[in-house]
Specification:
alpha/beta, Aspartate Aminotransferase, domain 1, 44% helix, 426 residues, Aspartate Aminotransferase, domain 2
Length: 426
Amino acid sequence: MPSDRLREVLANQLAELETQGRAKGVETVFTRVIPAGGGLGPRFELQGEDGKRFLRMNSNSYLGMSLRPEVIAAEEEATRAFGTGPGAVRFISGTYDIHLRLEQRLAEFHGRESAMLFSSAYAATMGTLPPLLTPETAVISDALNHSCIISAIRLARPKEKYVYPHLDMGELDAALAKASENCARAVIVTDGIFSMRGDHAPLAEIVALARKYDDAFAENALVVVDDSHGVGAFGKTGRGTEEYTNCEGVDLLIATLGKALGVNGGYVAGSSLIQRFLREQAAFYIYSNPITPAEAAAALAALEVLDSPTGRKLLEHLRAMTRRFEIGLVERGFETIPGEHPVVPLMVRDTGRTSALVEHLRSNGVLATGLNFPVVPKGDEEIRFQISADHTPIDIDTCLEVLSSFQQARDSSPAHQPSASDAENA
């Protein structure tokens, strides 16, 4: 069948994305990982770069778990025991004992009755929210929530939807009050860590507001938190934003195995009854293959490392490297949003300069991700750096030196030299 007219439409849409700066562009292809050594963290070789080695400052692997020998060994052993794939969705023949062991361990780690695995954290959110958002439900969401939350709400058919300004508890209070007039159930949903900025939700305040209005809803006011960037990277023991904010009472916690735990997959933890309901109603669970038994074994091994003295040391080092980088940015005159989470945004606030700085970093062997409008609001253009426990002081200082060289080159450029009129107006 011909598709010439469709191709023209799609080509125009792609061109529009590129013009708007929304196109993802060509993907970076890794061809080799060079293990840490000599005071340096891991280095990476890329396709088309002739063996040049890069420092990666844009990875979600906050603890470096994917390269740990015990995690690799667990995955290899489970592959030999169970093969490379689950063979079916779980309710047919795709559940293995290692899936159940991982779910039990995740529930214990988070102090919940139960946990259930999904193929990814995106799938976990997409699978969890729609069955809970009935035609009698109000959903209330932070304006900067992740795409998976936005997509899940669009997939559902709630009675009412409220989006409150980022971290604005007064507006959340007002939304709950209004929703209580017409809805039987309220579901407040928020990221734990907001991935673009590295800031966190005030979970204790959110839970307190849910409890304040709970009696006004016939089917309760629930709190759902996606803490995919928090678990394993935030809090004294890596239990995420709940731990950091000293919060109890989050009804459902969604998180990932694919960031700090270094493997693949997602999960939701909560009450046994809600989990039973989701196993019967969550389409992204019912009709998708689970993670492989080998991935489950690797995730279990990573979780055991995290919940041990070794894990505490990794977290302490991660916090130290994050502080070192933040202090270095400020000392060099860069703007950042301070915080303990290893997402460290460098606020550039200009699209052209953001792109130029990302290219300067790459040409000097540092991989970082620039975020421009409309991915972030105009004026909030940034480079999102992500610190890892794999990073060493030399790595952090290397990145800072590359940033300084860009700043120095820009300041010495004739285009940025102050004019006589500038001096008169100073």
